[in-house]
């Protein structure tokens, strides 16, 4: 088993522009929040943008093929009153009276 280590801001944010890197704030272990070049708010966990909050309020969610409980919890921290839960190894998005199967790029 590979040991997970805490990544530095430089490692996690290496693909960001200089301006995006300047706005990056650490909000958790291996998790950063930054403003992209278009003014959207992005939550980045390791090397995956797990939540993008567009200027119009729309949120796009992605686990980046890392469907782990930690990734799910990091997304859930950002999407209240929605929540992601897992049943029989499948992720679901619940909120506003609906339940949908989760997929990368799902919009709320």
Tell me the β content: 35-45%
Which regions are unreliable across 5 or more consecutive residues at pLDDT < 50? none
Total helical elements = 3
Structural class: alpha+beta
Helix content: 10-25%
Could you describe the largest sheet, including whether it forms a barrel? Answer: 6 strands, antiparallel
Descriptive tags:
globular, single chain, 108 residues, 17% helix, six-stranded antiparallel sheet
Summarize the structure.
The chain is α+β, with helices and mostly antiparallel strands.
Structure commentary:
There is one protein chain. This protein has helices at 9-12, 18-23, 69-76, and strands at 25-28, 31-35, 41-45, 48-53, 59-61, 83-87, 90-95, 98-101, 106-107. The radius of gyration is 14 Å and the shape is globular. The strands form 2 sheets. It has a 6-stranded antiparallel sheet with strand order 1-2-3-4-5-9. It has one domain (9-107). By secondary structure, it is an alpha+beta fold. Strand 1 and strand 2 form a beta hairpin.
List the helices and strands and how they pair.
Elements: H1 9-12, H2 18-23, E1 25-28, E2 31-35, E3 41-45, E4 48-53, E5 59-61, H3 69-76, E6 83-87, E7 90-95, E8 98-101, E9 106-107
Antiparallel strand pairs: 1-2, 2-3, 3-4, 4-5, 5-9, 6-7, 7-8
